[in-house]
Amino acid sequence: MEVTRLTATDAARAARVLGEVRAAALDGRTSKPAPRPVIRESWGRTARGGVDPDHDFRSDLLGRDEVERRRRTSRLRHVLPVLREGLLSLADTTQHIMMVADADARVLWREGSAAVLRKADGHGLGIGSDWREEIVGTNGVGTPLVSRRAVQVFSAEHFVRALHPWTCTGAPVIDPRDGRLLGAVDISGPLETLHPSTLALVDSVAKLAQAHLRELHLASLEQLRAVAAPVLARIGGRAIAVDRDGWTAAVTGMPYTSRVALPTSLSPGRCRLPALGPCIAEPLPAGWLIRPVAEPASAPTATHITLDVSHPRSWTVTVAGGAGSWTHELTPRHAELLYLLALHRGGRSASALADDMFGDPGRTVTVRAEMSRVRRYLGTFLDHRPYRFTERADVEVLLPETPLDLLPHSVAPGVVRSRGGAPGGLLRADGPGGARAGRAEPLSPSPNIPALAPVNGSWSRGEGSPCISRDLGVTRVPLT
Predict the structure, then answer these.
(1) 331 to each of 117, 298, 317, 370, how far by Cα in Å?
(2) Which of the 8 DSSP states describes residue 429?
(3) Chain-centre distance of CA 105, in angstroms?
(4) Cis? peptide before 33, omega within 30° of 0
(5) How far apart are CA 394 and CA 166, in angstroms?
(6) Which DSSP state fits 380?
(7) Which of 295, 303, 258 is nearest to 277 (CA)?
(8) How are beta strands 303-308 and 393-398 bridged, if at all?
């Protein structure tokens, strides 16, 4: 029996079946039908996070001032008309509500059926509510943000029992410029209002919103280019005009690069940028004019690189050296690549990285293209042939508490092996040094030790394998 098909024909029966599936998973029993892979993976993350399946514990709602601040600074505000046009008519006619949440899974906007809005208030679906998966379990806002894909959660597929009367369908909204999560859009309603086409509709509207953001980005660069062109024409030497986020509008006297990494708070005057060195920054309307300048050569100093992959939805690389430090937020693909390079300090060929990333050694063109983008902000610290971090840099990696929470969106074989080698399932360990895939263990707030779990201060991988060791909460990847 296919539960997806059953939900479209008999919602009440489907809810009962899924309740039995959830109960079996919580007890560590095998069920037929089995939970869908995306739901099973979410239940595993939720259980490891200690969420109580029978009680709904929430953090407080955000205050009105904080909600307004987040609304003003969120790029999602630019796509609200697109989301409303695509989804509000459905919400009104099918007794649903539309919710738009930021990357922290905080609900910033909410519209739709008045009756369902009143019902939602009693279930914690208000403005400013926290829908992170690690707080309320599997749901139509937090789960798409972790999995980075559209997800429909029907009745007892919600990990927390209090949400079983609901069906939720959500999709992530991703910044088309750099792949960062902006938030999620969700359509929710009583379980009897489920329609199987809702998932495709919500996913399509989210992609329309991303396309609209791309159009706005290109239009803003064109406006900045029109302002900067006369200024650049009068400058002798190197200069580049960028928007407030560092995206290039125009350049003269130097090679084109699509983006320049800017500090969080850039002020007019002298500064040092990772890709350009010492520069002079001058304000432009909606952007900056950056002019690289020469400085006397100085003795090289040791560089410390910290790769932070400890969070489920955001990842960074921080470089600290004699000229100061800077941090760059990573896209999901770049987080995977840098983690694999940190894991294999001896270096990886293009074909080996392709195998690690895609399970196909022949996809070297894709790997080289991505590494070219990485080198735009980290090129000084990366060698090639093979690809690796330079020996002049000391590399540290910040990891999540358990390996199964490492880059949870990733299906790259090299990352999956680090998580324990069994994507979508639970693992059980026969000892600190070895693990194998087995039947599902009970989904409890304190599950059995998984494969590669921190044991005696390290993630054990077995004899002869590289080990990522912990020291006061910071992980270091040694040379292999």
Answers:
(1) 35, 33, 11, 11
(2) E
(3) 12
(4) yes
(5) 50
(6) G
(7) 295
(8) parallel
